[in-house]
Every structure is written in C-alpha cells, then in structure tokens.
Amino acid sequence: MTSKCKEKFITNPPDLLSGVRYIVAVASGKGGVGKSTVASNLALGVSKFGSKVAILDCDIYGPSIPLMFGLLNSSVKMNAEQKMFPLESHGVKLMSLGFVSNDQTPIIWRGPMVHQILIQFLSSIVWGDLDYLFLDLPPGTGDAQLTITQSIRLSGAVIVTTPQEVSLIDARKALKMFQKVNVPVLGLIENMSYFICPDCAKTSEIFKRGGGRRISEELQVPFLGEIPIDSEVVKSGDEGTPIVAKQPDSVVSKRYSEIGIAIGIQLKVMERNRHRDKNDLVQIEMKKNK
Ligand code: ADP
Fold this sequence. Notes:
Elements: H1 3-16, E1 20-27, H2 35-47, E2 53-57, H3 65-68, E3 77-78, E4 84-85, E5 87-89, E6 92-96, H4 97-100, H5 111-123, E7 130-136, H6 143-151, E8 156-161, H7 165-180, E9 185-196, E10 203-204, H8 211-219, E11 223-229, H9 231-239, H10 243-246, H11 251-289
Parallel strand pairs: 1-7, 1-8, 2-6, 2-7, 8-9, 9-11
Antiparallel strand pairs: 3-4, 5-6, 9-10
Helix pairs in contact: 1-5, 2-11, 5-6
The chain binds adenosine-5'-diphosphate.
Adenosine-5'-diphosphate binds next to helix 2, strand 9, strand 11 and helix 9.
InterPro entries: Mrp/NBP35_ATP-bd, NUBPL-like, P-loop_NTPase, YlxH/NBP35
Function: Binds and transfers iron-sulfur (Fe-S) clusters to target apoproteins. Can hydrolyze ATP.
Pfam families: ParA
C-alpha cells in the first residue's frame, strides 16, 4: 500500500460513514447462494419500518444490485471533488461498482489492485444520514473481503448459505473469517431451504435442509432462519423489484422482514451493552479518582 493510499484508508471511510448507525455485511462462502437477493430483501424489509437504509454492492466479480433494483444502465453522479452520490430505488439508497463501470466489460481485478481500488471506491461515497448500511460482499474469503472487513467499522455480519454441503463448508470458512477479525456474527441464513408446491402445498427438501441450523449451533452463532425456494424471488429480482417490494405480504417477504427485525434487535442490544460497559468503566474510573 502506498503512503497516499494508507492516508485515504485511515482518514476517509470513517468520516464519510460517520452518519451511518449500523453497518451490516452480508457474506457467503460461495457465489450463487442468494447473498445479493438476501441483502436486497433484508434492506427493503428493514426500510418498511421507516428506517433510512442503503446497500453498498461490493461484489467485484459480478455486481447484481443494479439489476435487482432496476438500475442496470444507470451511472453514478459525481461532484467536482470526485465524491459519488448513491442512486435510489424502492426507497433504498444504492451504490454499486456496476454504476461506475456499467458496460458489459468485466473489470479485471488483479491481486494488488483490489485493495487500492476498493479503498478508493469506499472512500468516495457520500451516504448522508443512514440507520442501516448493508454491504453485499463478494463471495469467499479473499483479499477483497479482508480489505472491506478491516477498513469499514462493521457492526456485524450475516452469512448466507444454501443447504448443500459444498456451500456449508465455505459458509463455515466465511463465518470464521469474521470471528477472526472480531466482527460480531449476527447469524446465519439458510436460503433455498425447501420448496412448497403451489398446487398441493407439499414441502420438498430439494437440496436437503437443516445444515445452516446445524453449523450455527456448532459455531455458536444465532440461526436467523430458513428461506424457501420460490420462483417469484427470481422473477422479481430479474424485473428490478425485489419480492419484498413487489409482494410484501408473501410468505417469503414476511420471512425476510422477520429476519431484518431480528438483526435490528441484536444490533440495538449490542449497542446498549457497549454503552453500559462504557458507563461502567466511567463509574470505575470516577470511583478510583475519588
Ligand atoms: P449471490 O449473490 O450469492 O451470487 P444471487 O442473490 O445473485 O446470489 O442469487 C442467485 C440466483 O438465485 C438469482 O437468480 C436469484 O434470483 C436466485 N435466488 C436467490 N434466492 C432464491 C430463493 N429463495 N428462491 C429462488 N431463487 C432464489
């Protein structure tokens, strides 16, 4: 890292994120497990209750947020100081690498460049006041994930997995990465857990079921819930109106909203405990100095 970059790394992100109350990373070990879909619908679920919410799409390999929010051909607005302002769709503020390079050419991310480009990107966004900022992380546990987890003051992380063993193995790795860098794991979500037949209401466990709950218990993190396979999730995401916005009363949408509430409660409890610990320390210091 150059000294100029280091300077940016240290000074800029905290300044620009000072108006953000909670920053939640949504992560997965593997791609394609529904991480962006979960991040989008959780954000919408939380915003339904009046919170100011944003999503930062950090998926350098294939940003999906522009498509899911109907902003595929939109570009970011930039001011004279090269600061970038989020776009907005369905009441959620959005920023994506897809808005910066929105042609069909993939950005080639070479190892040493990943850190520098991500930091520059993260440092340039003006969010304003927010209650929740959800980060849609790239899948895996490589350089990009480490850069983000270590340069942004994360309130917590949510891990998304599907029930198959190949996904669970990598979800476990992602979970341990957050524990290693001392980011609280708010819990694990098992996506595509089962399928309810729309004709006969019979439940089929297409990819097995229950692995998410099992590794949550094993690694002692909360299990946030199971989300069924639903073709409406795909359709709504592809149309640019995620299911929580399109069909807020559907079973799947209610599940996303419940998980959003559970995350919000955990964050508030953690915040209260931190204040309490701080107050206790102040009291101890005051007693010592008497
Ligand atoms: P990731 O971010 O992990 O790569 P995406 O969120 O892009 O995954 O989802 C991959 C595909 O799976 C998308 O087509 C999405 O619509 C679909 N998908 C996600 N969750 C569900 C679900 N619960 N039921 C059906 N399809 C889903």
